[in-house]
Amino acid sequence: MSSLRDKFYLASGYAAGFCIALIMVVILMQIVGRIFGFIIPSAENVSGYALAASTFFGLAYTFHEGGHIRVSLVIQKWPPRARYIQELVVLIFGFGLACYMTFYCWHMVYESYIFEEVSHGYIPIPIWIPQIPVGLGMTALAVAMLDDLIAVLSKQTPSYQQHENDINLEEI
Fold first, then answer.
1. What does residue 90 show for φ and ψ, rounded to 5 degrees?
2. Cα atoms found within 13 Å of the Cα of residue 113, Cβ hemisphere only
3. Where in the cell is it found (predicted)?
4. What whole-number distance in Å separates Cα of residue 92 and Cα of residue 128?
5. 20 to 30 A Cα–Cα from 80, which one of 30, 59, 111, 153?
6. pLDDT tens, 112-168?
């Protein structure tokens, strides 16, 4: 099961990377289009949507890999019991916040679909379509936080801390 979760987080990271590559392709096409005298319709909108998608798809992968900013200089010196309580409190709060954000991201998608909102570019793109990756990315982050919350409650090392310990061992 752990390898399935790892593949899920890796897929989220690949989706973020794909969106960044999409931004590059759209902007490159826009530059080439200007040289040859044609425009790429709604290029700014598409690259903006891809930027939002890459940001939210990257959240779960970055969290799982220990890439989010933590004040490890302070908490590494704490005794194990204090660190356990701190990790537990932060993960509970973070998971609650991720669930709240996930709910409202999907609510935003639903409202955009119901009210038939479209973008204001050359191509009227229904807004709910580019909002789906935002909901998927937040869902993935909530799953990643729940995964590590369960690990901490089971007295196991959370995934982000394993990578943090790997980094600290390499620096020594």
1. -65, -40
2. 11
3. Cell inner membrane
4. 30
5. 59
6. 999 999 998 889 999 999 999 999 999 999 999 999 999 999 999 888 887 665 555
